[in-house]
Amino acid sequence: YPYVTGSSVVAIKYKDGILMAADMGGSYGSTLRYKSVERIKPIGKHSLLGASGEISDFQEILQNLDELILYDNMWDDGNSLGPKELHSYLTRVMYNRRNKFDPLWSSLVLGGVKKGHKYLGMVSMIGLNFEDNHVATGFGNHLARPILRDEWHENLSFEDGVKLLEKCMRVLLYRDRSTVNKLQIAKITEEGVTISQPYSLKTFWGFSAFQNPTQDAEGSW
Prior knowledge:
Blueprint: E1 4-6, E2 9-14, E3 17-23, E4 26-28, E5 31-34, E6 40-43, E7 47-54, H1 55-74, H2 83-99, E8 106-114, E9 117-123, E10 129-131, E11 134-136, H3 140-143, H4 145-151, H5 158-175, E12 183-189, E13 192-195, H6 208-211
Antiparallel strand pairs: 1-4, 1-7, 2-3, 2-11, 3-12, 4-5, 6-7, 7-8, 8-9, 9-10, 12-13
Keywords: Cytoplasm, Nucleus, Proteasome
Protein name: Proteasome subunit beta type-4
Pfam family, one: Proteasome
């Protein structure tokens, strides 16, 4: 069973590449124990990986990917693994561990750009996988993706893409107890990977529903 877990990861395609956002909280059970956990990492030359779920399992996955990238580089054949190949590899790894009844308790988001082609997909802890223009894990599946369905379009600029991700992360901060107001946004283009320094979003807690959340609840005190 998972011990220290991370919450949602949200990612989108934009005009020049892929944008990915995740907060930096690590929950020990229901306690927000760690607040500086980096859950977005560059993989090889063309890919970016984000994870929610068990942090130590994510670290094991990163070790496996490091070995895979090293082995691929040793061939020195002028080619390198792209996001599509890494997504396929992760799908097999997660499904294999699920079949052994010893799953890696993580949901993964894999995005990248290779030879002008943008790729974005996710893999669940049981090997469920798909590719889409925007993906999310955890509560992001329920709270962020409806926003993305309404507001995402393929010609998003970098600035508009960041604003859209910040809107999603702000909603998750309001509604998901496992989220902290400290996040990173990463982008990957043909030029490479850039991961922002951690920063906080401006928030407003004066909504009447926040001040008295049980006012209209049936059976409330």
